[in-house]
UniProtKB/TrEMBL annotation:
Name of the protein this chain belongs to: Acetate kinase
GO cellular component, one term: cytosol
GO biological process terms, semicolon-separated: acetate metabolic process; acetyl-CoA biosynthetic process
Coiled coil: none
Single GO term (MF): magnesium ion binding
Cofactor needs: Mg(2+); Mn(2+)
Catalytic-site annotation from UniProt: D154 (proton donor/acceptor)
One of the Pfam families matching this protein, by short name: Acetate_kinase
Record text on subunit structure and interactions: Homodimer.
EC number(s) per entry: 2.7.2.1
Residues at the site labelled Transition state stabilizer: H186, R247
Amino acid sequence: MIRKIEKYVLVLNCGSSSLKFAVIDVIEQEKILFGTAECLNSKESRIIYQRYRDQKKETILIKNLTHKRSINFIVQTILLKNLENLNSIVGIGHRIVHGGKELNRSVIINNKILKKIQESVPFAPLHNPFGIIGFKEASYAFPNLKNKQVAVFDTTFHNSIPRESHLYAIPYYLYKKYGIRRYGAHGISHQYVSEKFAKIVKKDIKKLNIISCHLGNGGSITAIVHGKSVDTSMGMTPLEGLMMGTRSGDIDPSIIFYLYNVLKMNVSQIQDILTKKSGILGITQVSNDMRFVENHYNKNVHANCAMKMYCYRLSKYIASYFITMNKFPDGIVFTGGIGENSVMVRKITMDKLKIFNVKCDEKINSRTKFGKCAMISKSDSIPVWVIPTNEELIIAKETFDLLKEKS
Ligand code: ADP
């Protein structure tokens, strides 16, 4: 019997308090193993993982896990136990949220690239530092994979956004000299679900107009015309746009001057408010989690208000993106933790778009969650789909292809 030569890519997605990992078989295009180390740096920290085939979830509680200890544990215990041979891992793909002014496509990480990722930290201060930690820790854990680690950026997919939507109406030199412009984020997810949508409806993506809504803890929406991003709601940093779990999304910039000049807050307090204490958490005052908002919608005035604000803003963005395509879209796609699971967010948002012939099929909508993929609109509506995202697959493919190209 000829034994298949296994070619796995380890994907690492390091956030501030969580670290997602996946081992992808790039030939079969499937996840062998995946999981999350969550609540890092707290007493509740744990690692939850599952094998693709048996779908059985394992939870391991380890107090005060750091990024470093999580990566060590994932490699030395979970991967070793499940893969038999770590040499089947041929490369490591890192999700890096922001490529800054210069890094506009996937690259093998070396010292020069690492320096550029470091320089782009001000463009994604809550995200990029953790991507750097992930790279450094993976380098210790896999000394044999030196020069086999790839950065895949969430900003790359948005390179195609034209000037009229990527420029801010501020002095031009700020763009020219300092790169202050809209870069967007979640590009890996927007790319994956739009390509998947084209496959599902069996049409050439180059002939489709799609609006993709990635709604997780962070959230963004993208207008995709003929396979290319033409506008997106996140801005220079992932703070602009939709209302999010703890981020404010769009605000009047003068609020910042008011907090500073009148309320005498300092810059880091203001940053903390807008990035960690706003959004759903800011309005409910208790939770950043959409599940809380859904469960308390009818009994708590703040949860009710948070849900209404969230869906109102989302529907306004969707409607405004009809303009970018000069016609109604061929499909609207929901993805991310909220997009894939919140029946209520989808229903309220779709109802607000009724005047544009968006009609929710309530029965299908209510049973579409927990990883299910389905069309949740009526047959005579603009098609609306729920498509679970798979950012890890794109990251693994990019990593594998780039390493093959350079070998
Ligand atoms: P991240 O942006 O960190 O990757 P996710 O895409 O995993 O986040 O989304 C996390 C969010 O998804 C949670 O904060 C929660 O609000 C929402 N969510 C997860 N499951 C459900 C559910 N069953 N119903 C409603 N919302 C959910």
